[in-house]
From TrEMBL:
SUPFAM superfamilies reported in the protein's UniProt record: Aquaporin-like
Pfam families documented for this protein: MIP
UniProt-listed NCBIfam families: MIP
Domain of life of the native organism: Eukaryota
UniProt similarity note: Belongs to the MIP/aquaporin (TC 1.A.8) family. PIP (TC 1.A.8.11) subfamily.
Protein name: Aquaporin
Region ranges (Disordered): 1-34
Membrane topology note: Multi-pass membrane protein
Subcellular location: Membrane
A GO molecular-function annotation: channel activity
Organism, scientific name: Brassica oleracea var. oleracea
Keyword Oxidoreductase listed: no
Length: 286
């Protein structure tokens, strides 16, 4: 009998009890998943941190438009691309500013600086509707002010050189522009979700410090790819600010592309993150 009991114990060791992994292993989590944000959170309006976050979004978007539109103006003023920083320089200006500004504001507002990013995070229940609307309004106001300061410095050149406004380039259809904006924004918002994922932050302690880097690099790469098509929007506030200050018909003809495309891309990225990436199927260790 003792021999049989020992054999049973040995067999049990050979085939240990199966342990769930993935999202089914709730007791084995090494991170704390934040609860979904409520749709409305009236208590936010009485908090200084709420208003401070919006101010941070305003200032960040203001600086973003100021630096990037000035860079675009400098390139267009040059007699040829070789006499300026060119498309690569424009892409670096956009990506570099996002890297710097996300690093500066992530601990205050989350460092969105883009209504499409805010919309995607809202769909994933990362922030309330109240905060999302507030952020988008402040981002748009900051973008308008940033482009306005650039025009104030050089009004004639600003109007003559297009004001950094986004348009669908000649030779491309509105459908092509819309597709470029959808895919470009998907890349950006997908990167934002991945770089700020709670589980990755717990597993890799260095990720919170490096999170702005992949986000800025994603913006850089998308600009390299889509500047020839749409001038690269992927940020409705950026497109709106330049269009309002430039205020010419060609800036408004295709303007809907730079709202519809980024919002669709952000929604797809949020759906992919929530339904596919974070919904890990239940598995068992054999």
């Amino acid at each position: 009998m003792e021999g049989k009991e020992e054999d049973v114990r040995v067999g049990a060791n050979k085939f240990p009890e199966r342990q769930p992994i993935g999202t089914s292993a709730q007791s084995d989590k090494d991170y704390k998943e934040p609860p979904p944000a409520p749709l409305f959170e009236p208590g936010e309006l009485a908090s200084w941190s709420f208003w401070r976050a919006g101010i941070a979004e305003f200032i960040a978007t203001f600086l973003f438009l100021y630096i990037t539109v000035l860079t675009v103006m400098g390139v267009k003023r040059s007699p040829n691309m070789c006499a300026s920083v060119g498309i690569q320089g424009i892409a670096w200006a956009f990506g570099g500013m996002i890297f710097a500004l996300v690093y500066c504001t992530a601990g205050i507002s989350g460092g969105h600086i883009n209504p499409a990013v805010t919309f995607g995070l809202f769909l994933a229940r990362k922030l309330s509707l109240t905060r999302a609307v507030y952020y988008i309004v402040m981002q748009c106001l900051g973008a308008i002010c940033g482009a306005g300061v650039v025009k104030g410095f050089q009004p004639k050149q600003y109007q003559a050189l297009g004001g950094g406004a986004n348009t669908v380039a000649h030779g491309y259809t509105k459908g092509s522009g819309l597709g470029a904006e959808i895919i470009g924004t998907f890349v950006l918002v997908y990167t934002v979700f991945s770089a700020t994922d709670a589980k990755r932050n717990a597993r890799d302690s260095h990720v919170p410090i490096l999170a702005p880097l992949p986000i800025g690099f994603a913006v850089f790469l998308v600009h390299l790819a889509t500047i020839p098509i749409t001038g690269t929007g992927i940020n409705p506030a950026r497109s709106l600010g330049a269009a309002i200050i430039f205020n010419k018909d060609n800036a408004w003809d295709d303007h809907w592309v730079f709202w519809v495309g980024p919002f669709i891309g952000a929604a797809l990225a949020a759906l992919y993150h929530v339904i596919v990436i974070r919904a890990i199927p239940f598995k068992s260790r054999s």
